[in-house]
Amino acid sequence: MGRKRLQESADGRPTVHTVAARAGVSIASASRVLNGVGGSPETVRKVREAAAEVGYVPNAIARSLQSQRTGLIALAVEDIGNPVYVEMMRAIEEVVAASGRQLLVHATGGQIANETALLRRLAHRYVDGMIVSPIRVTDDHLAALVDSPVPVVVIGQLGADAPVDNVRTDSRTGVCLAVDHLVAAGRRRIGFVNGPLDTVPGAARDAGFRAALAAHGIEVDERLVEVGDFQYAAGRAATERLLARARPDALVCANDLIAVGALHALLAAGHRVPSDVALVGMDDTELARMMFPQLSSVSLGSAERGRRAAELLLQRIADPTLPPRREQVPPSLAVRASSAAVPDVSPLFVPAPAAPPTPEVTA
Amino acid sequence: MGRKRLQESADGRPTVHTVAARAGVSIASASRVLNGVGGSPETVRKVREAAAEVGYVPNAIARSLQSQRTGLIALAVEDIGNPVYVEMMRAIEEVVAASGRQLLVHATGGQIANETALLRRLAHRYVDGMIVSPIRVTDDHLAALVDSPVPVVVIGQLGADAPVDNVRTDSRTGVCLAVDHLVAAGRRRIGFVNGPLDTVPGAARDAGFRAALAAHGIEVDERLVEVGDFQYAAGRAATERLLARARPDALVCANDLIAVGALHALLAAGHRVPSDVALVGMDDTELARMMFPQLSSVSLGSAERGRRAAELLLQRIADPTLPPRREQVPPSLAVRASSAAVPDVSPLFVPAPAAPPTPEVTA
DNA sequence: TTGTACGCGTTATCAT
DNA sequence: ATGATAACGCGTACAA
């Protein structure tokens, strides 16, 4: 039989009705004042006062139901522990915040097998739009993306015909940059520590590695190729396996986490970096600059991709009729100590207290 | 004059009305079927069919307005780049997901000066509860926390009288563990690289450091104490400043990011770790195990704190009348190569390919 | 300027 | 089992 709606809300908290009643005005007036539109000075004062007295807090859910927007943007990534996502997220946050919205990050943490379910669930209108960066794209995935009830932008490679806004890079070419650099530095026994081949980036980087070697007329030695996961421990383990059966003079790693694992494995096995083995990572994250020696790394423009994705999303939210767009961010190589062209002195073995400052780090 | 509500929703998407009309039943029946309660086999079939045909997706906002819950939990941290929050988040996620809810992470990124505003905004009912881990607690902060419209659990030190659920550790004692360990290993010129003193953890760790030295009868040499930020670059810079004016034989760092910066600074300056300078970090994150040599670190039980905080939050959501609770997680020390008690051989200088495996890393 | 009344999309209640 | 209808809390035409 429903109580009279002139009092508090179900959970005992004040609503517009509470404020209106206390101020002695209608809920319409109260609402107007609380939203800063209209109201005579006297009304404004009374409503403000009443609101403060009862500690009124607007119910965002109800507001959203009315306005059809939540002001929330979601970002879904697989592994929040990967610094590349941190950089992406910072860039996205900047754009999103500038538009007066809020960014929410959902980390599947690699734990949730069914990312599709998450996608559907999160997209049930709790957010005005979302950015996803999947590393595996199944048909289910794609279907969920395409008929998402809210605007979606995908960061990463996607089928050419997928009608979804998409920001990509060319990690294939990225690997080539690394190989070219190493070959130019005189390396020939170049190894590759990759992530799973059934992932989109894993496959692309594998192809890039083989194409690059072929371009230089170098035959691929399968003993120099190892596959693990896109993570530190797996990268380290993979490198240990590789070192147990081969003697590379350079190592390309499919991301920086793997590269850090490789560095650890190399040093632990007594190899000097870069004099014995040159090392190049990928993603060019903060992690690469945190290592000693600092890691060369192929930048895939993660921040730029994040920024662009956020902009595409905001545009689509503003105008849902836009045709699907596709943007591409070119890779670039940052050369640092781990693959210095003149590896006559390994930084690790400089004994003097006055060693030359490591490049690209400003204190 | 409002259009008849028997068709689509405002943005052209199907609603319960659409489904009901198409199935030739009432919205009540449609709703029941869609929620899996009641309905004759025939009705169920018709509704399911109609829903599939029009691609019905329930509007979570409307559902929440009705049910008074969103099924979302928020976690607000300052710096998502700090691995300690990653571990905390993983632990929280596990508990939250097990309760059938979803975790949303909001990273202020250290950019938003007014975290209080965020707190209020995010708490306007978009989430069923939230966990915050502030490093600075102002009066405003505290006020916002106390009269938050949704349940809040704070991870971190808080005034003893604050009526807010709270999970803390004792980083003061944590620093003591590190100092005790270093003194036992024969170190005497122990330095300290801290974060800002106007933060809660910064102040606590400073106090802990001074208390620990005093307990061992060692006078504090202010030249061995340096303050920066809780981040890598700042930690490295602070260590460089410290090394420019003093010669420590050990360094305690206020977190692992700082410790990594310190390691980089030490190695770049030609110091061996641990033989010349022993190094101990804090938080015992994955980062500590990624370094070479691996970093000793004081665990503040970040995962455990996260887990407990999530449990407290779920309990409070279930029963808001619970009195404020306070839990404490004790610190512990993980000793690794960077402060090995027998520093006769620096791992950095082991030349043999068959070096002993670094402890605590399983490939 | 102010108040009345309706709609946002859903679930729950109460008759039938 | 089913259908009409009242909430949930808010914003806003529209009329006064």
TrEMBL record, chains A, B:
Classification via InterPro entries: HTH_LacI, LacI/GalR-like_sensor, Lambda_DNA-bd_dom_sf, Peripla_BP_I
SMART domains reported in the protein's UniProt record: HTH_LACI
Entry keywords, A to Z: DNA-binding, Transcription, Transcription regulation
Ranges where the HTH lacI-type domain occurs: 14-67
The keyword Phosphoprotein belongs to this UniProt entry's keyword annotation: no
Pfam families, A to Z: LacI, Peripla_BP_3
GO molecular function annotations of the record: DNA-binding transcription factor activity; transcription cis-regulatory region binding
Signal peptide residues on this chain, from the entry's feature table: none
Protein name, as recorded: LacI family transcriptional regulator
Lineage: Bacteria, Bacillati, Actinomycetota, Actinomycetes, Micromonosporales
